[in-house]
Amino acid sequence: MSAEACLVPAEHSGLLKFSSALFYAGSSFLITVVNKTVLTSFRFPSYLCLGIGQMITTIVVLYVAKMSKAVQFQDFDRSILLKIFPLPLLYVGNHITGLASTKKLSLPMFTVLRKFTILMTMVLEVHILRKTFSKGLICSVGAIVFGAMVAASSDLAFDVEAYTFILLNDAFTAASGVYTKKKLGVEGLGKYGVLFYNALIIVIPTFLASAFTGDLHKAVTFQDWSKVTFMFCFLMSCIMGFVLMYSIVLCSYYNSALTTAVVGAVKNVAVAYIGIFVGGDYMFSWTNFIGLSICMSGGLVYSYLTFNNKSSESNTQVTKEMKIHISEDSSKKFSNN
Length: 337
Description:
Membrane topology: Multi-pass membrane protein
Structural class: mainly alpha
Transmembrane segments: 21-38, 44-64, 76-93, 105-124, 136-156, 162-180, 192-213, 228-250, 257-278, 284-305
Shape: globular
Order of helices and strands: HHHHHHHHHHHHH
Main location: membrane
InterPro entries: Sugar_P_trans_dom, TPT_transporter
Radius of gyration: 22 Å
Largest sheet: none
Pfam families: TPT
Oligomer: single chain
Helix content: over 70%
């Protein structure tokens, strides 16, 4: 192999990594606003049914794409269940707790408490993937968590049920991110197979749970179905549910679960401050605002350290590979002479 061939690293290009991260950030921002509009502004009574709509959209879009040969993934058989487990359980848990917490929390508090996803993701990557992190990264995560706790301590709309939902959502998101990264390498699944079979496996149990709890009846008898604005927002939520899940898988595929969590933190900088003025359910206090600022500052520092370290490690690895191959080429030329 020549030295010129070594100039191209084996991993994904920086453009793909950045584009997938940006795509995830935009999708996450938009679906948070749309879901908040449907569940809070229109007071739609069933977050379960909204989740079912997002799952059905995912199934339909990917099935049509597979039939038209636009995408490829393995046909269903018994091996699929073993290949994809436990992602469906984590997926439905993430979906339900995410929608429930969106309905019950103001946008700023929702985005602040979501910061615990980063800490949980780090813990899971340490124990499951055996990764290590620098002191700078650990300190920045500590700042994020500290800021979140300060902001949450002055939440005048404190709700034990809502806080339970959001912390469960953090745990499901972290676990889902780590296991998604592992499952993307499973033969026959790929990005689209993971999305399709996740939704296909859990949509019926979720539908039955919705009917059993009475959520389905509340959704069917909802009075605003005849309103064009509500229907538009509901359909947008269903579409964005698919787009969000695809963007998460894409970001995890080209980057890592931790990078995906970091991108979510950066996105929350915009969402939290915009949420102060949009939504109408944020109760201002200086303690809360200072906590938000500490949390967001920690998120920015964490993002900088993460991407900077990733870039440095990548450049170092490429340089080492170039030196090795150049040495090999030089040795071969010397021996030939």
